[in-house]
């Protein structure tokens, strides 16, 4: 149980002790800094501890935001500071210094006479008797990152006299704590559909879940199960099934919004929860694609190529988003005129919503899929979805290319490492690296683009054959050359998306050209398994957990190895045998990456990894 140490006797009539206990703290009272140091030493080192001024006046939610958020090793609001295990030693040092200073002040040494008068310094602030505030300043000085939440209209203060205390209490009474808490449960920046058609009521569903002890992970799981039932309904191929699928898909999205709002409402963040939320989003959408394709097949319409194309396009869109964001995660000097124009457009109300809608984020995309499923056919649904996603991809990618070309920025080693991890280069690249020479500056994205063209074009034109094998082999050499140098160029963030397009596009083209039933579903399964591996890489990087181990990347051959392997299998095997080979490869990749991924995230969660909260897909 976390411990809150009150500095000084509680003020008569104050609800502070009750508020802290309601937040789960064991409350103890310290008479001075020395007593607080003793109490702090008695708290186990792995438990959260808070130092709170007993005169504190404020909203319970202000205390919740400042003292219970698991994502930060240290946090503070006026009159209160808290640390978790990572910052515990720094707090212990700061409190020890405070105790020493208090002891010296109580028993001062005789001062030597000064021959000259010492002038008073008007710029030196008078010391404060607010111990939590002094400890917070000491943590800052000790290079501990102290999180200070935005309180907005919430009150958090330490009144110095009865009049100020009365004014603070009146300020607390004037603001509805629960209303602020509900508003803050909703993401500040969200899509039009989510903001206006989901969040107005899903926030109350989140509160209902919180009051019944439900966790965000439980709601996330419920959302996944609902989406899988929706996919099953679509797979029936009946009009009733399609209508039910559309309704259930929207319900799944409501629950998907609710889990994040529940996490913000109750500050229940975790590493495992962020991974489940992000992973299940992809699983839900792509499982629904498969359900639609199965439903269409029951009606005599084969749309597996469209379903696989939709998954490929959507995954490549996400890789563009992830790679661009990682490349500019800590870049400096954002001098891009394109960025300045974007900021100006964001200051105009209607353009903000228009720009958020045309990128087809998850809310708009799922609403579109649900409505089209219920009202039309799977073929129309996938066709409209492909057109919309293609337009969104061109719009966002073009804007990011313009920003990159007009931006003077120096990218860091961390960004280059993240892009190299996203590239997913395997043992063939490692082998070729030993003898190849690095390309000139700025050549990496062009080499990656050439590799993508040489991999996909022969498969599109000739299908299975030696031409596709040769194209994939040359593409492997070019892709290896592309990543020889650190990816710090202005457009080097395009390298991972080009690699994804090369691999997924080759599988799609070869499966489509095979002309045998069952090859495209097998290809869908393979791309889904590989895409999971790539998404898992992204989520590890986002959570500062590093990339998957090299052993895993080697075990699944890297992007260039898988592309070459698929072309060789297509050339050597009959179409029926190729179907079996794709299925076996999909099962192998899925098992390897899922076992390692689940092991990693569960172990990280149990080992106390820093809590994170995924705010959803960038697009």
Describe the structure.
It is a single chain. This protein has 619 residues and is mostly helical. Strands 2-1-3-6-5 form a 5-stranded mixed β-sheet, sandwiched between helices.
Architecture blueprint of SSEs:
Elements: E1 3-7, H1 16-22, E2 26-30, H2 33-42, E3 49-53, E4 57-58, H3 60-67, E5 74-77, E6 80-83, H4 88-106, H5 131-141, E7 156-157, H6 162-174, H7 177-184, H8 192-211, H9 216-235, H10 239-266, H11 271-298, H12 304-327, H13 337-346, H14 349-358, H15 362-375, H16 378-405, H17 413-423, H18 427-433, H19 444-462, H20 466-482, H21 495-514, H22 519-542, H23 550-555, H24 558-572, H25 575-606
Parallel strand pairs: 1-2, 1-3
Antiparallel strand pairs: 3-6, 4-7, 5-6
Helix pairs in contact: 2-4, 4-5, 8-10, 9-10, 9-11, 10-11, 10-15, 11-12, 11-22, 12-16, 12-17, 12-21, 12-22, 15-16, 17-21, 18-20, 19-20, 19-21, 20-24, 21-22, 21-24, 22-25
């Amino acid at each position: 149980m976390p411990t809150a140490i009150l500095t000084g006797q509680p003020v008569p009539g104050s609800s502070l002790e009750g508020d802290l206990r309601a937040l789960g703290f064991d409350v103890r009272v310290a008479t001075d800094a020395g007593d607080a140091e003793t109490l702090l030493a008695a708290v186990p080192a792995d438990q959260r501890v808070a130092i709170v001024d007993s005169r504190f006046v404020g909203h319970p939610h202000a205390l919740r935001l400042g003292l219970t958020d698991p994502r930060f090793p240290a946090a503070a609001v006026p009159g209160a500071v808290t640390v978790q295990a990572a910052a515990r030693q720094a707090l212990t040092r700061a409190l020890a210094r405070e105790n020493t200073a208090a002891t010296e002040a109580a028993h001062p040494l005789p001062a030597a006479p000064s021959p000259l008068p010492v002038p008073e310094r008007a710029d030196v602030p008078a010391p404060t008797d607010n111990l939590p505030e002094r400890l917070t300043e000491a943590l800052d000085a000790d290079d501990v990152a102290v999180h200070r939440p935005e309180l907005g209209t919430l009150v958090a203060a330490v009144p110095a006299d009865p009049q100020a205390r009365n004014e603070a209490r009146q300020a607390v009474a004037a603001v509805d704590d629960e209303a602020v808490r509900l508003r803050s449960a909703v993401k500040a920046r969200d899509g039009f559909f989510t903001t206006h058609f989901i969040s107005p009521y899903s926030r109350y569903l989140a509160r209902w879940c919180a009051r019944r002890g439900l966790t965000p992970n439980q709601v996330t799981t419920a959302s996944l199960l609902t989406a899988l039932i929706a996919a099953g309904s679509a797979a029936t191929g009946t009009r009733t099934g399609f209508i039910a699928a559309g309704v259930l898909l929207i319900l799944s999205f409501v629950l998907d919004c609710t889990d994040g709002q529940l996490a913000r409402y109750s500050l229940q963040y975790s590493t495992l929860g962020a991974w489940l939320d992000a992973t299940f989003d992809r699983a839900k959408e792509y499982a629904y694609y498969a359900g639609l394709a199965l439903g269409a097949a029951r009606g005599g319409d084969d749309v597996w190529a469209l379903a696989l194309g939709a998954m490929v396009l959507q995954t490549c869109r996400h890789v563009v988003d992830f790679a661009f964001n990682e490349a500019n995660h800590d870049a400096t000097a954002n001098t891009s005129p394109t960025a300045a124009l974007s900021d100006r457009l964001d200051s105009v109300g209607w353009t903000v919503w228009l720009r958020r809608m045309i990128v087809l984020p998850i809310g708009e995309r799922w609403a579109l899929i649900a409505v089209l499923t219920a009202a039309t056919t799977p073929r129309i649904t996938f066709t409209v979805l492909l057109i919309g996603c293609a337009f969104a991809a061109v719009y966002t990618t073009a804007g990011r290319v313009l920003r990159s070309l007009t931006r003077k920025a120096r990218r860091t080693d961390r960004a280059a490492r993240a892009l190299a991890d996203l590239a997913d280069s395997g043992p063939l690249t490692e082998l070729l690296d030993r003898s190849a020479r690095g390309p000139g500056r700025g050549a990496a994205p062009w080499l990656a683009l050439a590799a993508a063209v040489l991999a996909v074009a022969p498969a599109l034109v000739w299908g299975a054959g030696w031409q596709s094998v040769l194209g994939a082999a040359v593409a492997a050499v070019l892709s290896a050359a592309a990543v020889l140098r650190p990816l710090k160029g202005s457009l080097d963030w395009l390298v991972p998306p080009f690699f994804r397009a090369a691999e997924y596009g080759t599988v799609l083209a070869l499966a489509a050209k095979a002309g045998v039933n069952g090859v495209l579903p097998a290809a869908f399964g393979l791309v889904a398994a590989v895409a999971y591996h790539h998404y898992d890489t992204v989520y590890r990087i986002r959570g500062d957990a590093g990339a998957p181990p090299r052993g895993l990347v080697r075990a699944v051959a890297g992007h260039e190895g898988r592309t070459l392997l698929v072309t060789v299998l297509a050339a050597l095997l009959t179409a029926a045998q190729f179907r079996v080979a794709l299925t076996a490869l999909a099962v192998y990749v899925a098992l390897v990456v899922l076992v390692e991924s689940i092991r990693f995230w569960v172990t990280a969660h149990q080992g106390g990894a820093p809590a994170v909260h995924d705010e959803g897909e960038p697009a």
